[in-house]
Amino acid sequence: MNQLFKRTKGDQVIWAVVIVLSFISLLAVYSSTGSLAYRMDKNSSYYLIKQLMVLGLGLLIIYWVHKVNYTKFARIAILLYLISLPLLIYTLFFGTTLNEGSRWIRLPVINVTFQTSDLAKLALFMFLARIMSVKQAVIKEWKKGFMPVLVPVLVTCALIAPANLSTALMLGFTCCILFFIGRVKVSHIALLAFAGLIGVVMLFTVSKITGFGRAATWEQRIHDFIGKDDENGKKKEDVYQVQQAKIAIANGGVTGRGPGNSQQRNFLPHPYSDFIYSIVIEEYGLIGGAALIVLYLLFLWRSILIFRRCPYAFGAFLAVGLSITLVFQAMLNMAVNVHLVPVTGLTLPLVSMGGSSIWFTSVAIGVILSVSRYVDEMEGKKKGVKDTETEKETTTKTKLAAA
């Protein structure tokens, strides 16, 4: 075990956060999949073992990726982004439809599905980090600086939005934050936000007229969220899943019902993915729910420290961009669970039951740790040089004094 810890480099706090989140995931998934295992005629520990294998492979992915020098990701960023675009187009028209949305591609032979938007997010931030690091001298100029980073964002979000609007909006918002950090003009960022708003309105209008897309689902979710009055003028009750999530949170109280004692896992739809945070609060209370928020914020804080310490723009943008999108997705999922925003299809990173989504998240975390490892090594070399110079000066002074 000590040898393994010696081999792991990078920010040790991030490593600790990842391990704690993985442990929480195992507890929450095992507790929330009892009814699913019964319906699917599986052993009660089937999904626990499956999640354990997924998380185990995820940790290995983090380890392998963090050993790679992050500068090599700049070389594959363009290729990865160009691969993601045709995959998004294919998913839009021929992807596997689950939960009313065509978001998945089923890989032949191994029969595994994955969301192409997960790959697109990773590819986009690598691509943006590369371009923004090169264009820093002209980033405030419209044609030379901003257009090269604007077009990839608009294209990617436009391809994701018809089937997965929440992910597209999250991606666009995160890119705006990254642009602000990257010294892009605020007026240009505001223009991007306005273009996104116009795009959403146009997408909704076209979907409403043609019937292609998910306009009806988006409209229904907005109505459910604001509690639109029914025909008799009475306040409409919450939709079933929101209602059950609120009951789970109310049952949890401050300290929770204890591990494995959730009642709403038998009634709440998708308690192991979209609404797993409600189960965490029911079993571990507001204290457990707050602790989970602190873990994600701690992850973001450590990533920001990496961003500030990294001497090169590419690594800095890579670390902060990937960490912001991961933490922002977690906050959106929690906001859905406590009914602060309309229902979306976003999962809780590293906690919700999953497969490919956890692995893509693991790649992103591995990249962040790769940047951290490089920064630590650079600072270690500088410190070693300073210590050597100090030792030489001390030796020289001692010899002079003796003479």
In quaternary terms, these chains amount to: single chain
What value does the Rg take, in angstroms?
24 Å
H/E series: HHHHHEEEHHHHHHHHH
Q: How would the global form be characterised?
A: globular
Indicate the percent of residues in helices: over 70%
The secondary-structure class comes to mainly alpha
**Sheet with the most strands?**
3 strands, antiparallel
Chart the SSEs and their pairings:
Blueprint: H1 2-7, H2 12-32, H3 34-39, H4 46-66, H5 72-94, E1 96-98, E2 101-107, E3 112-115, H6 116-134, H7 142-160, H8 165-181, H9 186-210, H10 215-226, H11 240-252, H12 276-309, H13 313-337, H14 356-402
Antiparallel strand pairs: 1-2, 2-3
Can you give a write-up of this model?
It is a single chain. The chain is mainly α. The chain is globular, with a radius of gyration of 24 Å. It has a 3-stranded antiparallel beta sheet. It starts with a helix and ends with a helix. Helix content is 71%, strand content 3%. It has one domain. α2 runs antiparallel to α4, α4 packs parallel to α14 and α5 packs across α7.
